Amino acid sequence: MALKFRGVDFIEFDTLLNDDERLVRDTSRKFIEDNLIPIIEECNRAGRFPRELVKPMADLGFFGASLTGYGCAGMSTVEYGLVTQELERGDSGVRSFVSVQSALVMYPIYAFGSDEQKDLWLPAMQQGEKLGCFGLTEPDFGSNPGGMRTRARKVGNEYVLNGEKMWITSGSIADVAVIWAKVENEDNNIRGFLVEANRPGFRAFDIHGKWSLRASVTSGLSMQDVHIPESNLLPKSGGLKSPLMCLNQARYGIAWGAIGAAMSCYDCALQYSQLRKQFHNEPIASRQLVQEKLAWMISEITKAQLLVLQVGRLKDQDKVQHQHISMAKRNNVWMALECARLSRDILGANGIADEYPIMRHMMNLESVKTYEGTHDIHTLIIGNSVTGIDAF
Ligand code: TGC
Ligand code: FAD
User: Ligand 1 center to residue 83 CA distance, Å?
Assistant: First the structure.
């Protein structure tokens, strides 16, 4: 039984949005409803990224949406957040693709790149003609990227890169990878490099057997004596702070995206509970235990909306701090995962079938809880912020 999404707004949250924000949200919602919802279960089963959506998403301005110039849409950060909310209501994997292209590849080129790099890559990436990936995590360094082993050595007017990156979204479909490496002859300073996928010695291989983010490509990257010209160094990058600045952009989008996944689960469970009858021929929605689950979900979704909207408003005013974003990512992804579990429960056995979106969201959210800083790493970031004590 297909249940059509009806939107979720308990406290007239929409009145906190301006006309432009509502327009962006509604346009994104319609796009997802018309183009992603009809194919996502097939993509999830097949483990297929819906590449056919790249061009239409580019046409709607989804890539580099909050950047200005280079053909980018120049959206406010709240508008960009509403786009990611709608994308993730469709599927976390498709939102992941957009997050990486926008926040983790276009943003570092925009923030740390030379004019030549920006002119070369940003318009093509905005158009979806070129795709990117972001290589920070390594097989032995996930939560602690500062320990990375990937090295760059300056030799004449080139850099030579060696190392391994792991769990890289869009790795094998990317035309260019933003690779973070320690520069040996620069005191092991962490710098960002643009590595084109066709460079000799660069290899991307897909990670198979995922139970999560099946509609997204996840890869490992191997670099063996990859020579790149010095013009491929992101000149304004330097230190671990640079990749962490990119993560702030992406974590913010995830905090909105998770609300989308939660809305999808909640609205499905609510509609189902009103239709499903057990005992006395009455809907399960009439039972207190079911209502408690629905009340918990709508309360948490509403609190998550208010939290991320405030973080977005601060970001638009250039007042946001990274611990604010950590709180929104941590809370909203946890909240969404709990909503997925409660919604699955309300659907009983039907909850495990991919006729409904819930189990797919639940599996996806397990990755979302881990990537971009695990739930517990964000706990420690907030703990550090309030106590001043580093407990990593
Ligand atoms: P630490 O000494 O604390 O920090 C190093 C420097 O960075 C500054 N800093 C930040 N700056 C901007 N934004 C942030 N969020 C920042 N966090 C810290 C810090 O002030 C310091 O600056 P300075 O000037 O003193 O040098 O570094 P640490 O090595 O102790 O690590 C701290 C920690 C745990 C917070 C950090 O390493 C971390 O966040 N770990 C989690 C790793 C992570 O999130 N990886 C994500 C990989 S990408 C990904 O998952 C993409 S999934 C995409 C998708 O498919 O959607
Ligand atoms: P670990 O760091 O080994 O952590 C394992 C457990 O230990 C976690 O529960 C963690 O919270 C806990 N832990 C670690 N340190 C501490 C501590 N000090 N105190 C308490 N607990 C601790 N990375 C990229 O660079 N680019 C990408 O595009 C990308 N895409 C991804 C896509 C997917 C589908 C997934 C699953 C991951 C992706 N990642 C990517 C990697 C992701 O960022 C890492 O998985 C994440 O940072 C956690 O690292 P880890 O998996 O090595 O776990």
Answer: 25
